[in-house]
Amino acid sequence: MARLTTIELTGYALRELKDGGLEWAINLDKGLRHLPQIFWENGRGWDEVNVWALRQVEDGADYETVKSLMKALQRYANFLELNDYDWRHFPQRKEDQVLRAFRKSLMSSIEDGTYASSTASSTMYAVIRFYNFAKDNNLISPNAPLWSAEKKIRHFIDARGFARAMVRDGTDLAIPLRARIGNGVEDGLLPLSAKDAKELMKFSSQKNTIELHLMLAIGMFTGARVGTVITLTGQAIQGAVEHPVISDLYLIRVGPGTAVRTKFNVSGDLEVPKQLLLDLKKYLFSTRRLLRLAKNASASRDTLFLNRYGRPYSVATIDSLVSQMRKRAINEGLTEFKNFVFHETRATFGTARASVLLNIGLSRSEAVDQVRTAMFHKDESSTLRYIKFVDKASQKSDAANRFYEETVGLRNEDWNALGK
């Protein structure tokens, strides 16, 4: 299978000598400590993709963006090797073209629950981006029948709450995001019901590792994205301060200036229920974590969640663990989780928060402001989807308040029976 790793790239620049001559000298400003690169099973690098990754960095993309793109290309590389395809071969018959075969494989992965539609969609998008680069730089034939161009209409809500439409160029290879029922609140996802949310927490505590259970709990009760969850540190947990207004709620600082990552580098405070914070502190000093910590001699020792090798978890690993959890849940008859993805914990938290705020009498603008702050949304358009979803949801008051008090509030739950 293809391997994704990072290399350290040394930068050089011309330096003028005293005698007027020039020489190449190391320039630390031009170097890269972590450049994602893909290597085939035989050990050879996929040179074209690796150069593309470097180009992304040179064009200003941050590390997480480039890593995400390269993970998508790694999935494609694995598909190529498994099926003995040449990425540059495009016969006239559509059925034999590699990109269409890969798209078909991704669609099958959505149906069997291996990938969420968002993962498949972003993977196909990254592969198309690479092929555009390859075509622009004459790495493949300019006449290769890659795809058919299409006009795509994207409907969205602007910052003022008005419905808008934008036309953009697309291809017939693009994979649309799917919501299971109705309209999703974020990334095409729907929140879990109060009953399903509690069932998920119970199942994860009894049938999964304590690490996955706590990560799901953080997502469910704080709305944190997975990238934030896996970079939480012991220092962040121990530095939590009491909320100045709400009892039994604590604030954990995340974003720039901390080691905890956030999307778009937004600064803010995670609002963490007291019971969850106590569970996290207990885990921080648990024998299980300390044994894992003993295997880690790197700068990431303060990371809260470490895998069995003593290294921080990656987003891909969490996706894999959630996929395994889904299969176990289905085997035990919990078919409501057959399409569950980690990000649904965030959708659930945001919907519950919006419902509570509206039901206690806050105006829409006040509710939007508070939900936006809690969810770390870059703009109001994302937050407004939650407000509109709540407006349309039936029995919103009763269900949302019960969920918030019974689940998000962590009032009467005993999470001592955690996984192995």
UniProtKB/TrEMBL annotation:
Annotated Gene3D superfamilies: 1.10.150.130, Intergrase catalytic core
Alphabetical list of SUPFAM superfamilies matching this protein: DNA breaking-rejoining enzymes (SSF56349)
Record carries keyword Oxidoreductase: no
Domain Tyr recombinase: 187-400
Domain of life: Bacteria
Alphabetized GO MF terms: DNA binding
Annotated GO biological process: DNA integration; DNA recombination
Keywords: DNA integration, DNA recombination, DNA-binding
InterPro entries: DNA_brk_join_enz (IPR011010), Integrase-like_cat_sf (IPR013762), Integrase_catalytic (IPR002104), Integrase_recombinase_N (IPR010998), Tyrosine_recombinase_XerCD (IPR050090)
UniProt entry tagged with the keyword Ion transport: no
PANTHER family in alphabetical order: INTEGRASE_RECOMBINASE PROTEIN MJ0367-RELATED (PTHR30349:SF41), PHAGE INTEGRASE-RELATED (PTHR30349)
Family (UniProt): Belongs to the 'phage' integrase family.
Full protein name: Tyr recombinase domain-containing protein
Source species of the chain: Bordetella genomosp. 12
